[in-house]
Design brief:
This protein has about 150 residues and is α+β, with helices and mostly antiparallel strands. Helices cover about 35% and strands about 35% of the residues. It has a seven-stranded antiparallel β-sheet with strand order 1-8-9-2-7-5-4. The longest helix is centred in the last third of the chain and has 24 residues. It is globular and about 60 Å long.
Amino acid sequence: MEKKGIKIAAQNRKAYHDYFVEEKFEAGIELFGTEVKSIRAGTLNLKDSYCTIKDGELFVNSMHISPYEKGNIFNREPERVRRLLMHKREIRKLFALVKQDGYALVPLSVYFKDAKVKVEVGLCKGKKNYDKRDATAKRDAQREMDRAIKARR
């Protein structure tokens, strides 16, 4: 019997810093056995990865999965382009939105859901530098308020 629940394998925290996440989608991913074992070992990096749509199919680029130690000849190239699995109508919807100015598809996290590997893809709009500074200032202010409340108790 397989385990139920969600176990996060990797998150792309940089995406939340560089983009406003408008909407999130769940997609399956086409992997080989040694890649799944490597993800279970936690050797996955989503930094600088992005998604593209080509010929009605969704692909994730520059997602680094380190070769599995015991994989020998079955290991694949670490940064190969991998296909994401979504319904055709969802891909068409995303394609229409991405064609608009300023939108990008960015993988936000990779996780196990009922023993299957899933990717959370975000429809994102790029942040300007002043937006990033504003977000940092808000986060710092919230942290200060939390400290003050904790100190009063």
